[in-house]
Design brief:
The protein has eight helices and 15 strands. The chain is an alpha/beta fold and 280 residues long. The chain has one domain: Metallo-beta-lactamase, Chain A, CATH 3.60.15. Helix 6 packs antiparallel against helix 7. InterPro entries: Metallo-B-lactamas, RibonucZ/Hydroxyglut_hydro.
Length: 280
């Protein structure tokens, strides 16, 4: 694996790169906040990163591909960690078409006006020819937004799983293989229930059918916004854990009592203010 730094793109397959970022999330470690670039005959941005690091994200993306060459921007859904730099990306990529949905455009209208003349709707099961490959849009088993679609590239067998397989990590890392078995298991069960708390309401057998259908894409590499890259054998393990989610008790949310305890701990750990030198 190449050197790993946040907002430094790294290659996960032929002509396919993840742009990594992460948020510190006390007390559970960090949460990845990634996006992806497919640098093929007709380059594709897959999500557009978070606005908190807009300048750095744009610089990272353009280090992989010339914005004038970008032909497609695939927006998985309109949440800020996925669509945060959409307008900046559209402005920098005048030759790009936005792959989105009718509902996403409406949801974004509360903040900005998406240029509808530059849009193409790509819903669950649709495909798009991007020159040297045909990409497949697919609704993933877990999601936190009704417009969500994953993206599969059969040419490289890379699957962008969006928020499915979300996990906390002890420190930012490029590949889930670096996690211990316990951290991987606990993270998958925690992240899934955090992203999609409604999974506890599902019929287990019906959910398994959905998961099985997603697994049949037969991805060799799975990247996502909120997880390090998954490769075999971790992919099979991740699907097995995913199937278990409807039977796992709901995650207990942090409460005000937890916040009070954290604040009290923080106050006792802050060093006393040092006396300032007198003015001369």
């Amino acid at each position: 694996m190449e050197a790993f730094d946040l907002l430094q793109p790294y290659r996960i397959a032929e002509e396919t790169f993840v742009i990594p970022w992460a948020l510190e999330a006390p007390p559970v470690g960090h949460f990845p906040m990634n996006s992806m670039v497919i640098r093929g005959a007709e380059p594709v941005l897959v999500d557009t990163g978070a606005p908190a690091v807009r300048a750095q994200w744009l610089e990272a993306a353009w280090s992989v591909v010339d914005p004038l060459d970008v032909r497609w921007i695939f927006l998985t859904h309109d949440d800020r960690d996925h669509a945060g730099n959409l307008l900046a990306a559209l402005a920098a990529c005048p030759n790009a078409t936005l792959l989105t949905t009718w509902f996403s455009i409406g949801r974004m209208a509360e903040e900005w006006e998406t240029p509808i003349n530059r849009c193409r709707f790509l819903t669950d099961g649709d495909t798009i020819d991007v020159g040297d490959r045909t990409l497949v849009a697919k609704r993933p088993p877990l999601y936190d937004n009704p417009t969500t679609r994953a993206l599969f590239d059969p040419k490289t067998a890379v699957l962008w799983s969006v928020d499915t397989f979300a996990t906390n990590v002890p420190a930012p890392m490029p590949d889930a293989g670096a996690l211990s078995a316990d951290d991987f298991r606990d993270g998958q069960l925690f992240g899934g229930r955090l992203v999609s708390p409604w999974v506890a309401l599902l019929d287990s057998q019906k959910f398994r059918t959905v998961v099985d259908d997603f697994e049949r894409l037969d991805a060799e590499v799975i990247a996502g916004c909120h997880a390090p890259v998954l490769r075999r054998p971790r992919i099979a393990e991740a699907y097995d854990l995913l199937r278990r989610l409807p039977e796992v008790p709901p995650w207990r949310e942090f409460t005000q009592a937890d916040l009070d305890q954290w604040m009290a701990t923080a106050e006792t750990s802050i060093p006393p203010e040092q006396p300032r030198p007198s003015a001369t």
